[in-house]
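Notes continue from the previous slide.

Worked example: a multi-chain complex. Inputs as given:
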Amino acid sequence: AQSVTQLGSHVSVSEGALVLLRCNYSSSVPPYLFWYVQYPNQGLQLLLKYTSAATLVKGINGFEAEFKKSETSFHLTKPSAHMSDAAEYFCAVSDRDNNDMRFGAGTRLTVKP
Amino acid sequence: EPEVTQTPSHQVTQMGQEVILRCVPISNHLYFYWYRQILGQKVEFLVSFYNNEISEKSEIFDDQFSVERPDGSNFTLKIRSTKLEDSAMYFCASKESGQNTGELFFGEGSRLTVL
């Protein structure tokens, strides 16, 4: 099965600073990739997804991610962090052959005033 | 906006007791999932369900676990004899179609505490 690795279990940035959350996938065939956000005491909400169309994907709340096949990466970025961005972010992969979705370990984003 | 709903939001049980977690997926969705998140850890796949049968299950989903769609709207996860290590947040999710590009819609989770 496919898998994703998220580098950094905890990222802390200042308000207004660039947000960069890293995700690498393991596959010889590009899978479908997703970023979900989990706010405290809530379920997971889709931020954006890559489905083999454009490599730069724009999502909600100003987030975007770029699929780079050469680096097997799908890093999540936002130019300017807001306090409301503080949450847990999960990268996920969906196998083209199977129908399930597997998640990375998550990265907790803290935004300092 | 349609949403996945889960009950109960929090359940406390004694070790060895049976627990049933309930989910109402989005009404026109066909694929259903249970995931587990132990406190502070990753979201782990348990099982997927389609056409009234299990499609896939992980190694976590052993004989103590079962799923059912008893009445065409509810989707339940049963843990037959709970263990301390079953304490976790359990998320139900549903997907409209079989396309692997499809988004999973998640409920807000059921927190299970096993004492």
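Summary box: Chain A is about 0% helix and 50% strand. Residues 59 and 102 of chain A are 20 Å apart (CA to CA).
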